[in-house]
Automatic annotation (TrEMBL):
<comment type="similarity">
    <text>Belongs to the CWC21 family.</text>
</comment>
<feature type="compositionally biased region" description="Basic and acidic residues">
    <location>
        <begin position="89"/>
        <end position="117"/>
    </location>
</feature>
<keyword id="KW-0508">mRNA splicing</keyword>
<feature type="region of interest" description="Disordered">
    <location>
        <begin position="75"/>
        <end position="179"/>
    </location>
</feature>
<dbReference type="InterPro" id="IPR051372">
    <property type="entry name" value="CWC21"/>
</dbReference>
<feature type="domain" description="CWF21">
    <location>
        <begin position="55"/>
        <end position="100"/>
    </location>
</feature>
<feature type="compositionally biased region" description="Acidic residues">
    <location>
        <begin position="75"/>
        <end position="88"/>
    </location>
</feature>
<dbReference type="GO" id="GO:0005681">
    <property type="term" value="C:spliceosomal complex"/>
</dbReference>
<dbReference type="InterPro" id="IPR013170">
    <property type="entry name" value="mRNA_splic_Cwf21_dom"/>
</dbReference>
<dbReference type="Pfam" id="PF08312">
    <property type="entry name" value="cwf21"/>
</dbReference>
<dbReference type="GO" id="GO:0006397">
    <property type="term" value="P:mRNA processing"/>
</dbReference>
<feature type="compositionally biased region" description="Basic and acidic residues">
    <location>
        <begin position="125"/>
        <end position="138"/>
    </location>
</feature>
<keyword id="KW-0747">Spliceosome</keyword>
<keyword id="KW-0539">Nucleus</keyword>
<feature type="compositionally biased region" description="Basic and acidic residues">
    <location>
        <begin position="165"/>
        <end position="179"/>
    </location>
</feature>
<protein>
    <recommendedName>
        <fullName>CWF21 domain-containing protein</fullName>
    </recommendedName>
</protein>
<keyword id="KW-0507">mRNA processing</keyword>
Length: 179
């Protein structure tokens, strides 16, 4: 029993006391069964862009973790502090250069495109992987970036809007000729 739901004791009730959600009343779609979902841009799912500051912070954090691992290893070997600092700075510089080189690549670097191996809480990494995967698919299909709507409006919705506008113009022209 959790959150005061269910029987305080199921003893003598003839049940186990387990409470289930009632799925018999589902909200029907406004358009009806079999009708495709609306292509209205206001109801379209919003695509969130990955925050580059957070991604950069995570990459810098990974660099610092590797530097601290090196520092601990050298301290266990009882190397003097000046040598430790020097080697840590060299590793930090090398890893930072590698990170910059990765960022300068047009493909986005050697990171995986599919986002496998990422945890559910790595939202920005997942969004970045999805963006790269979409870009890869777009290039494979031969689509141009300009063909992809910036406002998130579906191309079919734009066609439908143009068709309605033409019908309205034709009705006005027909009403003007009849008058």
């Amino acid at each position: 029993m959790s959150s005061n739901v269910g029987l305080s004791t199921p003893r003598g009730s003839g049940t186990s006391g387990y409470v289930q959600r009632n799925l018999s009343l589902l909200k029907p779609r406004a358009a009806g069964v079999g009708v495709p979902y609306s292509l209205d841009a206001s109801k379209a799912p919003k695509v969130r862009k990955p925050d580059q500051e957070i991604l950069n912070h995570d990459r810098l954090r990974d660099i610092e973790v590797k530097v601290l691992e090196l520092r601990e290893k050298l301290e266990d070997e009882e190397v003097d502090d000046e040598t430790i600092d020097e080697q840590c700075d060299q590793l930090r510089g090398k890893l930072t250069k590698d990170m910059e080189r990765e960022r300068q690549r047009p493909s986005g670097g050697p990171r995986r495109v599919d986002g496998k191996g990422l945890k559910s809480y790595q939202v920005h990494e997942l969004a970045e992987a999805k963006e790269r995967e979409s870009d890869r698919l777009r290039r494979a299909l031969g689509l141009k970036q300009s063909e992809i709507p910036e406002d998130g409006e579906h191309p079919m919705a734009r066609q439908e809007k143009r068709r309605r506008e033409r019908e309205i113009v034709q009705e006005k022209d027909g009403a003007a000729e009849g008058a």
